[in-house]
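Thread amino acids onto this structure.
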């Protein structure tokens, strides 16, 4: 599996290029892994309530990553319509931006919802 990586003197972040799951956050200064168990690799989870089904979740780890752009210290990941789960397909687009800013990691998630 190909990885997308960004890093600075404080952190190294690795994302799988198939689903965009965050597979590794390594703290270089503290010398430890923030994701110690590979099964915990995730990216986003959306709640999209439906009539008669309030708990309709869209799991980002099950979606195919549509595109990405990475620089040395930032990456932008895109998942485009349709996003799917066992209840169907939904007109949603998700963009996740991860940026290393000195000793911080900034996450920004934007959702474009065109579903009913």
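Threaded sequence (116 positions):
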């Amino acid at each position: 599996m190909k990885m997308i990586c960004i890093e600075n003197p404080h952190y190294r972040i690795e994302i799988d290029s198939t689903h965009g799951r965050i597979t590794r956050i390594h703290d270089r200064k503290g010398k430890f892994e923030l994701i110690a168990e590979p099964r915990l690799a995730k990216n986003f989870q959306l709640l999209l309530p439906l009539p008669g089904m309030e708990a309709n979740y869209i799991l980002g780890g099950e979606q195919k990553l549509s595109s990405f752009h990475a620089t040395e210290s930032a990456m932008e990941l895109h998942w485009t319509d349709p996003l799917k789960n066992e209840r169907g397909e939904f007109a949603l687009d998700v963009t996740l931006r991860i940026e290393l800013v000195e000793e911080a990691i900034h996450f920004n998630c934007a959702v474009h919802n065109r579903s009913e």
